[in-house]
């Protein structure tokens, strides 16, 4: 996937999607996780995404990260499981994340 600058809009703010190698420090896992496809940095309005991600997974991953941002912004206190399932449900319903330049 090309490393072009993409953004999504959330709560009237532009979030920059930054494509990085999977061994980038932002995506590195810990003892319980092998690493992440994406990570959202709420305070910086940035979403770090693996640069080798497939288009299909990118959409689902962005839905997931958007749900994290919504969860945080609206104080919903959703569990990670709920976020995963909502992203899978929305993706399965054909919801596509609209990227802007
Ligand atoms: Zn997550």
Please outline what is shown here.
The chain is an alpha+beta fold and 101 residues long. Helices cover 32% and strands 28% of the residues.
Describe it.
By secondary structure, the chain is α+β, with helices and mostly antiparallel strands. It has one domain: Zincin-like, CATH 3.30.2010. 32% of the residues lie in helices and 28% in strands. A 4-stranded mixed β-sheet has the order 1-2-6-5, covered by helices on one side. A two-stranded antiparallel sheet has the order 3-4. Helix 1 packs across helix 2. The longest helix is centred in the middle third of the chain and has 19 residues, at 55-73. 20% of the residues are buried. The mean pLDDT is 89. The structure holds zinc ion. The site of zinc ion has 4 residues, from helix 1 and helix 2. Zinc ion binds next to helix 1 and helix 2.
Shape from CA axes? globular
Helix amount: 25-40%
Q: What small ligands are held by the chains?
A: zinc ion
Are there runs of 5+ residues with pLDDT below 50, and where? none
Question: What's the CATH topology label?
Answer: Zincin-like
List strands and helices in order, with pairings.
Elements: E1 6-10, E2 13-20, E3 28-30, E4 33-35, E5 38-41, E6 46-50, H1 55-73, H2 80-92
Parallel strand pairs: 2-6
Antiparallel strand pairs: 1-2, 3-4, 5-6
Bound molecules: zinc ion.
Zinc ion binds next to α1 and α2.
List its salient traits.
binds zinc ion; 6 strands; single chain; Zincin-like; alpha+beta; four-stranded mixed beta sheet
């Amino acid at each position: 996937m090309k490393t072009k600058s993409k953004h999504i809009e959330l709560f009237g703010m532009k979030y920059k999607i930054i494509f990085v190698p999977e061994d980038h420090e932002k995506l590195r896992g810990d003892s319980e996780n092998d690493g992440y496809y994406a990570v959202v940095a709420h305070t910086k309005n940035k979403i770090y995404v693996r640069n080798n991600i497939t288009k299909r997974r990118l959409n689902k991953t962005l839905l997931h990260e958007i749900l994290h941002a919504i969860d945080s912004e609206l104080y919903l206190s959703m569990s990670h499981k709920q976020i995963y399932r909502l992203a899978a449900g929305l993706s399965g319903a054909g919801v596509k994340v609209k990227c802007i330049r």
